[in-house]
Amino acid sequence: MRILFWGTPDFAVPPLEALLGEGFDVVGVVTQPDRPVGRTRTLTPPPVKEIALREGLPVLQPDRPRGEAFLAELTALGAELNVVVAYGHILPAAVIEHPARGTINIHASLLPELRGAAPIETAVRRGFTETGITVMRMVLAMDAGPILHQSRVSILPDETGGELRNRLSELGAQSLIEALALLEMNLLPAIEQNAHLATYAPKIEREDARIDWRLTAPDVANLIRAYDPRPGAFTTLHGADVKCFGARASHMHTHVDDPGTVLSVGNEGMMVACGEGTVRITDVHPSGKRRQSVREWAAGRGIAINDVLGTATLPAT
Length: 317
Hints:
The structure is a single chain. The protein has about 325 residues and is an alpha/beta fold. It is built from eight helices and 15 strands.
């Protein structure tokens, strides 16, 4: 089976490597254009492109995957099937239907739950104990195509969004190989999703990552874990942003008027009062500085007991 792989970030690398390792005929890769990265704005290729170049695969990097010229390039590659993993653009019908065997997609949730751009972070933030990978046939509606294969995994206690992303990337690679093997044997029935059960995980906006200390301690800890390492859940102190990491909830009773009050600072982090209970935070990234432990931050007089971290209106979930 001749496969054209579509993907861009690190999350898409294990599935591509799995296809190559299992001997599938990958005829090329479609990925996002190179982007400026870091303070020096160095033009940097996407991780998937680096793998493709290492393997000598043709690489297409359209600004937008559409138009007659682009379709002609796809025709020249002669793929029978598109495999899409975190590519980053919505594909038009002409692209989805271009190969004889259509287009399949790896999505990091158990569809129809958590359709959308941020299923991993949303699962952690909402306190899910289970999530997984869905391999589906792609249609024009977002993440609404028939389900071909699903794999489940537990979300570990205190697991961060980044840690879960890494595990789901590997699970996605395994699930893809299993699905393709069944597809080649015509043993992979397509099951339509129940749209009435659909939930959504939209793109993360800045205010989504603002910590509202009026929430319960478990909810605050989930929010901080969800956005670790990126984009980083943040609060404010003396008018400057501070990103918080390494959160663990406690049900210790507090006697403060202001949620966000720092109750203690020590070698193991700082205890912060929430609307109900407290949260221990071990690491911070103050604006304009590097990520560091709370102990280092306190030694530099960045934080002290009785400081009050900023509050915000309750973010939408």
